[in-house]
Each structure stands twice: as C-alpha cells, then as structure tokens.
Specification:
The structure holds 3 protein chains of 3 kinds. By secondary structure, chain A is mostly helical. Chain A has helices at 2-18, 40-47, 49-52, 67-72, 75-84, 104-118, 140-151, 165-169, 173-182, 207-220. Chain A is elongated and about 65 Å long. Chain C is an all-alpha fold. In chain C, helix 20 crosses helix 21 (457-467). Classes of the chains: A mainly alpha, B alpha+beta, C mainly alpha.
Chain lengths: 241, 216, 505
C-alpha cells in the first residue's frame, strides 16, 4: 500500500511539473454576492429577458431595443419603472426598496447597459415627439374619431385589436402613450409620425390626439370581466369577430 | 496456530549478532513462573489498578458528557426579543424581507448570524412574521409578490401569502415568529433555527388555513 | 536471514534487529492465495485503501491553509482557489478523490456481496466494511460541510430539519448537531472535528483491521456454483485450495492491485486537472436568499427521495429506513453465513443489487434535474419563444406577460425552458378548453396552488387567452362541444381564427 502512495505522488508530481501553465480546471473568480453583480448581460438575462425578449425585443412586453423609446424616456423614468414597477401593467418592482431583489446600483447598471446597447444618437431625427408624460386629459369623443381616422386602419382585425376591454385593463395610460409615441418595431407598431397604412409620411399625432385616444380607450376598459365569454363582450363595439 | 509456531521457530533460529535474546523471549521468561490458579498479590494489585482507572474514567466522563451536551438547551434560553426596525419600513398590505442579527452569537460566526425572515403587514397594526426556512427541510423560501406565493427551491414547497401550505411536500404552513410593536419598532421573539421540533413558539398559522375550498 | 555485508544491508539489519517486521511482512506478502483470486474483480478494496491515503495526504495539505471558522472558511477556500499556487489543484484532488473513494467503496461492496465474500468466516470483515462505507459517506457529507458555502449551509439546514423530526428529543438533537441554536461558527467547528479527527481516526483503525482480517482469513476464493460454504469444513477446504492451487499473494495477485490503484489515482489526477475543484459556491450568508441549494453527487438520491415521499410517510421513512437498511446489512452475514457463494445460484442477490443500482441511478438522475423544484428565476429570465408570439393579439401578448409575471413559468416549461414541476404547456390548448384552463388557474388543485385570489379577472382572461394559443399549428385547440359561448374566447385570443371551426358565429 505504501508503494501505491509513492505511485500516486509520482504521478501527481509528473502531472503538475508538466502543466504549470495549464489552467483549465482552475476557477477564475469567487462567486459574488447576488447583490454585487453589476454585469448588464447577467442582470438583464436574469431579470428582464423573460418579458422583454433576450435581446430587448420580440418579447410580449415593451420593445426596449427601440432607440426611439430610449430617446423618449429619461433615466429617472426608467429608474422609476424598473425600481418601483409600472402601475396598471405587469411590470413588477425590482428595487429592494419596493420589495424586489435589485440594489439601486444594479438598477442603474441595467439602465446604463440598455443605453449603451440600444440607444442610437439622433434616433428621433431631430423631430420633437409629444411629451413622454401626459399633462392634460383628453376628450374621449374626439378620441373615438381620431382612433377611427388614424388607428383603425390597421387595428381592425382580431389579431391587432387593441380595443379589447380586457387588454386595455392590463395596460396603463402611460404604456399606451409610450407605444403610440415610440412605436414598437418588433411588432411593426409605427411611432407617432408614421401613421399611414401605406407607409407614406402622414401628419404626426399631436399631444392632443394622443390624449384624446387614451381618453377614448380608457372608456373601453373593463377590469372585471364576468366569468363566461367576457372577452367577446361587445362593449368595445369591435367584438371578437 | 501454525503461524504462531512458525514465527516462534523463526525467532529461535534467528542468529542474533550481539547474542542478546529477542525481547519476546524475555517476556516469556518473566511470565513463565506464574501459576494461574493462585490469586497472587500482583493480580489483586492489577485489579485494583483497573478499578482505580475505571473510577477516574467515570468521574471524568461526567464533565465530558456535560461539555458535549452543552448546546442541548431549552428553546427559551436561546430566544429573545429583537427589533426588525421601524414599523414604517413595512408597507401595509405587503410582505417584505427583513434581516436581523441572531441574538445568540459568537464573534467568529461571520455572515452566518445574518438571519432573514419575511414580515407581512396585513393591516396597520397586524403583522405576520415568517421564518425563511421551509417547513419541509429548512431551505430558504422566496417570496413572489406578483403571484403572492412563497416558493421553496429545494423540493417545491409552495405557501400562500398568509403562510398556509399551498402545495408540495410540507406538512404545515410556514413557521412564524411571535411579534410585538414597541415604540414604533417591530420586535420578534427569535434566536434559533425553526424545525418541526423546536417550534414551541412557532405555531401553525391559523389564518388562511382551509380558506380555499378547492385545495386538496 | 540476509548476510550482513555492505552499508545498506547493515542499516537494514540494524532496523530489522529492532523492529522485527520482516517476518510478519513476508508472511503477509507471500501467503498463498487461490490462483483464481488473482483477478481484476479483486482490485477495488486495495484501490479504496489507496484512495484513503490520497485523501489523508491532500487533507493534511489543505489543512495548511484552511481556516475552520465560519467567518473565514469561505475566504480561505477562495484563497486556496485563487491565490495559493496550485491550491485549486490540491482542492480538486481532495474533492475528486472523495468522489472516487465513495464510488470505489460502493463497487467494492457490490462485488463482495455478489461473490458471497461475507459468508463464514468473513462475517466480521463484512461488518467492518459496512461501517467503513458509513464512515466514507460520513466523510463525504462532513467534507461538503467544510466547503462552507451556500450549499453547505442549507445542507446543514436539511440535516437539522431531519433531526428535528425525531420525536421528543428532536429539538435537543438539533442543538447538538448545530452546536447551538442556529447554523454558525460552532456548527462548522464540530463538523471540522468530525471530518479531521473523529471519522478519519476510526476510518483508519477500521480499515487496518479490515485489511488485517483479509490477510489472516485469506482472500475470498472465486465462487463456483455448487461449492457450498459449511462452517465445519470451509477452513479446511479453503486452505487446501490455497495450497494446492495457490500462488503467493505478492506478486501473483498484488500486481493487479498496484496497477489498478495507480490507474485510479491517475484518473483522480486527470479529473482534478480538467474539471477543477468543487466550489466553493456563494458565501454562506443566510440573508442571501437567491440560492438553490443542492447536495453533492452522492447525496442527490436522498434529495430526490425526500421530494417523492408522500408527506405522511416522510418522517417515519427518514428516521426508520436508514436504521433498517443498516440493520439488514449488518445482519446479512449471520443470516446467510453458509451456502452458495456463486451468483449463478443466488438470483435474489443479483436482483437486489440490480434493483438498488437502478433505483440509485434513477434517483440520482432525478436529483440532477430536480423536476420537482420550481425554477426560481424562470419567470424573469426564460424568454417566451418568439414563435408563440408571432402574430399574437395584444390581449395574448398581455397574457404572456401575466404568464411570466405571475411566476407560472417557475413550474411550467414553455419551449423547453422553465420549471418542470407542472406539465409543460407547449400544447396545453389541445388538452384543455379555455373553460377548463380558467378553472384550473383559479382553483389550482393537484399540486398547483390556487391563483384565484392573486389574479384579477382581466389577468385571468388574458392568461387564458394566451394559453389557448399554445397548440401546434396543425392541431386545433380543444373546444367544449356543448357550450359554444366559450369558443368565442378562442376567437378573441386565437392567432388563427379560421382554423377553429368551433368559433364560427
């Protein structure tokens, strides 16, 4: 048995002498505390990718890889939504102060990473979009007309229907507003300027138009649909079929 | 037997350069004069020696056993009231993770005395404080405010917001700590890892138990 | 006796004169063993013994740096990994040596069992072997604790929770196991004592006694069908076999032991080099709750068993099954001290080994994939496959958001990612109508929590609309033929309305 110990020592020594520079099995870093992770790819991948898509697009939630969106919303706004969640939507709060798991530094790292990866200078091509935050209440009646004139061209089939009262119950006014201004390239939703069905430049939506449409859509909301067949409740005037 | 004989012959045959007989030979001579049938003084003294050692050993065993069993204590001697911080740091209607230093601690405990618990503030003056440990095998449950569930990463135990068992292997709801509010601070009675045995103060949460008719 | 000439031989004689080891060593080395035991099947015991020495040496080397303090153990392991030159390699050797040792001890045991080697007069050798197995497993578990990371911490939590299930004295046992009320400095100190002093001391003592008995009683002969063990005649028959058809143990059989041991150590060295050390994982700070504790490889099967036991059986099983298992192993040589040794005549033994091996393998495999555990970050990390969202209506997209946001994904996989606790939902719409989906979501049941209180009606409708789109393109979603009102939900949620004839209005 002692001989075997000698054999093992010899083999180990032989292996080590020949392979000083060989570091394949060597571990590179101690495992950091979860709160110390500041790498954008890791943070985004663990916290955001599920809904916003692995590359910021093609998820069910807001298209974050949209440069126009990133030009529209400032860091404070992003910090507010990421940290505290977006009321009226499925966007949850991620900051520790709001019951989430991320530190303020991590939220900032996500914001910085989003800007670095997806922002594009001159995304708005010098155009002045309507303000990000809503300042005035719109007129629902006028909104209905604007909707018919500007939105219904595309939003007329079931698959594009946004007047669904249940859908509207799950998106906030701010989310609708963001969508109307910045668009969503991953699903082909144009921004506030390109509202023509044939792709020709048309009159951009004004702040007033957007406020009106939101007021109109707000009137259609139904947060508590009844039990059976509610999705087809013809309240919206545009039932399922 | 044959082996012993063999060894014996070998030893006797062995030429010893210095002429000294091997030691085991000497030993043989020393004992060969004994007669087993006589209870000699030597045997009596040896028995006395064994008895003395037995007595000393027994006397020493008492402090040794006491030393080994020192951690075995009543639950109450480990537990005390500690503050989780200002009441206002727990928003009403929400469940928040809270950390505290375990009251029974030693300087070399390092990070292990950072204990986590969940504070659920149902109403302004109504709390529930849950241990982090799953009632199944003690793994750390995680709170998901979106679905209002606690989930355990080990064997899939799930609990509702009020700590009652929702699904998985746990046989009961989450362990809870006693709480009280003292000068606008939330205090809990804590100090030891809750298990199914030392949970005298960690009773089954009544609220929410059986509230769902469809469980089962 | 060698003639005394030359310095080397004089030195040898000087020591031999005083130690007198030559006789016993020669006797042990040259004792005749049955020719057919010089087999590659008989090398596992010596390999386990060699690995024990590898573990002792690497363990001593690690103890040069390691600090058995809860405050510093994790740091010292990281110093070993990252700062001490080749510290990572010594850790890797010790870790892989441990895995190999457990594996070889288990193989050795299975071989000895199948070859009937536990029968008369080797009962005590087997019994010591059972204790050696338990101590090897004890070393593996306490070693995992000394790798003081999150897995070690929560592994101790599992141990304490099991202790806490002992009736009447459970609470005290928990305190005793942990050395105090919580997992802390005292806990690590006592596991250090167990791992470094108590168990290795006993292990060495038992292993040496075990080897001593193998030398004294002779290596078990190759079992032949029909050659039955009888107390009255066995020793005589064995000696006849060893002397008439025997060879000296060294080198006749020993060279195979040497070669295999060398190969095993080389395998440990290569595994350590290529795959590196185990952990340490995250810091053992219980306030870090983003952790998914998992035991080391050889305890995964227990981890799996614990998740499959019905709750009512759990405590009795955890507390009684190990005692019964050990009692059976200890009683085996007394129950079957005589009789056939050959596996050709012992179908039950072969079946038992096969059954245990298959069960162990299956549970270990399950413990690797943990299909019963929710994936804690699936809800925020696992993206919805783009194909499920192509052309989806706004309501369906919101439903997908609800699906993620409400942690459905933690238990239900979609597109191959997500938890496996519940069924995968890729084609759920072909199996459940919207009505059934809604009912299931609201009320839960089986192993699913009820979500009725935690979802708004709108969220439920959106979620059901999304789930109702989860079907293969060439397969229609399930419909309730007697109640058409539900079908309209399809129409609002389905991506391809015309494909659902039940939705006609």
């Amino acid at each position: 048995m002692r001989k075997m110990a000698a054999v093992l020592l010899a083999s180990t020594a032989a292996v080590l002498c020949g392979c000083h520079a060989y570091q394949r099995g060597e571990v590179s870093q101690p495992v950091p505390r979860p709160s110390a992770v500041l790498d954008f790819a890791t943070l985004y991948g663990q916290n955001c990718a599920a809904c916003h898509g692995p590359d910021g697009a093609n998820g069910p939630a807001t298209d974050l890889a949209n440069p126009e969106y990133l030009a529209l919303v400032d860091d404070a706004g992003l910090r507010k939504w990421i940290g505290g969640g977006m009321p009226g939507t499925q966007m949850p709060a991620f900051a520790k102060s709001s019951g989430g798991m991320l530190t303020d530094a991590q939220v900032n790292a996500i914001i910085a990473g989003m800007r670095k990866r997806w922002s594009r200078p001159g995304a708005l091509e010098g155009a002045q979009p309507p303000p990000y935050a809503q300042t005035q209440t719109g007129d629902a009646k006028r909104g209905a007309q604007t909707y018919q004139a500007r939105c219904a061209v595309c939003h007329k089939q079931t698959r594009d229907e946004i007047t669904n009262p249940v859908y509207l119950a799950l998106v906030s006014d701010q989310a609708l507003r963001t969508m109307m201004i910045a668009g969503s390239p991953d699903i082909g939703q144009p921004d506030w300027r390109h509202d023509s069905a044939d792709g020709k430049p048309a009159t951009p939506l004004t702040d007033q138009d957007i406020n009106d449409i939101i007021a109109y859509l707000d009137g259609l909301r139904n947060a508590s649909p009844g039990f059976a067949g509610t999705a087809a409740e013809p309240q919206s005037g545009a039932p399922a079929r | 037997m044959t082996n012993d004989e063999h060894r014996l012959t070998q030893n006797q045959d062995a030429p010893t350069p210095t002429g000294i007989p091997p030691l085991n030979e000497l030993a043989k001579h020393a004992t060969s004069g004994e007669d087993d049938r006589v209870v000699s003084r030597r045997w009596l003294l040896m028995k006395a020696g064994i008895a003395l050692n037995g007595l000393v050993g027994l006397a020493l065993a008492v402090p040794v056993v006491r030393y080994i069993f020192a951690p075995w204590r009543k639950d109450s001697s480990y537990e005390s009231w500690i503050s989780l911080g200002a009441v206002k740091s727990f928003p009403a209607g929400e469940t928040r993770l809270a950390l505290f230093k375990n009251p029974f601690t030693r300087s070399w405990d390092g990070p292990t005395d950072n204990v986590a618990c969940y504070v659920r503030r149902e109403e302004a003056d109504k709390f529930q404080v849950f241990a982090i440990n799953c009632a199944h095998l003690g793994c750390p449950v995680r709170w998901f405010p979106q679905s209002q569930l606690f989930m355990c990463p080990c064997h899939g135990g799930v609990y509702y917001a009020d700590g009652s068992r929702a699904s998985g292997p746990p046989t009961r709801g989450l362990f809870t700590y006693d709480w009280k509010v003292v000068s606008n601070e939330l205090h809990i009675d804590a100090g030891q890892m809750p298990t199914l045995s030392n949970s005298a103060k960690l009773e089954k949460p009544e609220i929410g138990e059986g509230d769902c008719t469809c469980r089962g | 006796m060698p003639r005394v000439n030359g310095t080397g031989q004089r030195i040898y004689a000087w020591f031999e004169r005083r130690l007198q080891l030559e006789g016993p060593v020669k006797e042990a080395a040259l004792h005749p063993v049955p020719r057919n035991t010089a087999s590659w099947w008989y090398v596992f015991g010596s390999a386990a013994f060699t690995l024990l020495f590898l573990q002792i040496i690497t363990g001593i080397l690690l103890a040069l740096i390691y600090v058995p303090s809860a405050a510093h153990a994790w740091d010292s392991l990281n110093v070993l990994n990252h700062q001490v030159p080749l510290g990572w390699y010594i850790r890797a050797l010790h870790g892989w040596g441990s895995n190999f040792m457990v594996a070889i001890v288990l193989i050795h045991m299975a071989q000895v069992f199948l070859f009937g080697a536990y029968k008369f007069p080797r009962e005590l050798t087997w019994i010591l072997g059972v204790f050696l197995l338990l101590m090897t497993l004890g070393m593996a578990f306490t070693g995992q604790v000394l790798r003081f990371d999150q897995d070690a911490y929560w592994g101790l939590g599992i141990g304490a929770s099991i202790m806490g299930r002992v009736p009447f004295i459970g609470g005290g046992l928990v305190h005793l196991l942990l050395g105090g009320p919580i997992i802390a400095g005292a806990t690590l100190s006592r596991f250090f004592t167990l791992h470094v002093f108590v168990i290795p001391g006993l292990l060495l003592l038992f292993a040496l006694t075990h080897v001593w008995m193998v030398l004294k009683l002779g290596v078990n002969e190759w079992p032949m069908p029909g050659r039955v063990v009888r107390r009255a005649t066995y020793v005589q028959e064995y000696n006849k076999l060893a002397h008439e058809d025997g060879i000296p143990f060294v080198p006749g059989a020993f060279w195979k032991d040497l070669v295999f041991s060398g190969a095993v150590i080389a395998a440990v060295a290569v595994c350590a080099l290529i795959m590196g050390p185990f952990g340490p994982g995250g810091q053992p700070d219980p306030s870090i709750i983003q952790t998914v504790p998992k035991p080391d490889f050889f305890f995964l099967w227990i981890y799996a068993v614990l998740s499959y036991l019905p709750p009512a059986l759990e405590t009795p099983f955890i507390l009684i099954a190990p005692i019964i298992g050990i009692a059976i192993l200890l009683a085996l040589p007394f129950y079957a001290a005589e009789g056939e040794k050959s596996w050709h005549r012992r179908p039950v033994a072969v079946l038992v080994v096969s059954f245990v091996a298959v069960a162990w393998g299956s549970f270990t495999q399950l413990g690797t994939v943990t299909p019963w555990s929710p994936h804690m970050s699936a809800w925020s990390a696992d993206a919805i496959p783009a194909k499920f969202l192509r052309g989806a209506s706004p309501l369906v997209r919101q439903g997908a958001n609800v699906f993620q946001d409400k942690q459905c994904r933690n238990c239900h996989a979609v597109g191959g990612r997500g938890g496996q606790r519940g069924p995968a939902l890729d084609d759920i719409a072909t199996r459940m109508t919207p009505d059934e989906l809604r009912f299931k979501v609201v009320t839960g049941g089986g192993n699913m929590p009820a979500f009725g209180k935690n979802l708004s009606p709108a969220e439920i409708e959106a979620l059901v609309a999304f789930l109702d789109t989860l079907h293969p393109p060439n397969q229609r979603p399930a419909v309730n033929p007697v109640n058409e009102v539900y079908t309209s939900t399809h129409a609002s949620g389905g991506e391809d309305v015309s494909a659902a004839p039940g939705a006609a209005r």
